[in-house]
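quick one before i forget lol
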Amino acid sequence: MAAPPARNPPDTRTLLERVLDDVGGAFTVGLGYVGQRLGLFEALAKAGPVTSDALAAATALHERYVREWLNGMVAASYVEHDPAAATYWMTGEQRAVLVDESARTFAAAAFGMVMPSLALAPRLLDAFRDGGGIPFAELAPEIPEAMDRMHRPWFDHMLVQEWLPAAPGLIAALRHGISVLDVGCGRGRSTVALARAFAQSTMLGLDPHAPSIQAAHDSARALGLGNARFVTCAVEELAAAQAAGEAPPGPFDLIVAIDCVHDMVDPVGALRAMGELLSPGGAIFWSEPTGSRNPLENRNRAGKMRATLSPFHCLTVSLAAGGAGLGTIIGEEGARELATAARFTSFTKLPVDNRMQQFFLLRK
């Protein structure tokens, strides 16, 4: 069968340049990972203009490797260089993206997810041949830690300030005091952000990954938050845990599910369980990655990142449990289909301008 005509296909030169960019980017991520793990970015940011000898001494590392790392980071535009003085430094913008984890623009935590994920390639080869997948519990501990750090800008700077206000009346209700369930909370950063912002409301963070929930407990305890609790279980198991006295009782006036439903073993069952946990008039605030189920529409930076990540993470952790295997990008169309299958009668796409996530409000 003849192939149909391609829609705006890249020419050979453009494609060769793309491969060159991607290979260079892959090794840049590798060196970024090395720089994070060894404290090179942080030490360089603190030192200001510094020679490779001085940076090596400050970090107790081998100078020749440090110099080559610095030169690679200069080529990637992550670091600046003065050839005459043989010094290296970082600008304020570079520090905000690569070093300052409290910044809205911090992005370098992704290095800590990419490298351990790529190391799964041999196991992924077996999954391609034989089916199944890699369970979340068998991922390197670095991966959930990196995901937590990656999402810090979302929860420190966007969730309360930009995302939730898009749902009419929600901020006022949270300030007055409601019961909130945070599904797929991971290490609890979203739950903690909600608890800190809305002291009159009570928050229950939920995730099936026990080490992440323990980290969430520790974070809330360190901050003295009495309105945030955490339970280790999937949302479909929460009602049983409540009946057994192992989880705080519901119902919940608001359920938050940020960037997690597509990963689940049974997304429809999970949404249906959320619906059953809602109080009358309650709502689900749900986000999914931006992008389209039509892969041609994902030919952009964010779409490419999500689409290529999927087999290494979102797809494989679902298939490992015999799940739906939706993958990372389901698009608005896929979200609407899931909501309909879960018997929600109201589905609203919220007006949030965000290049990485799209937001929906569901009601029964």
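fyi The CA atoms of residues 169 and 175 lie 10 Å apart.
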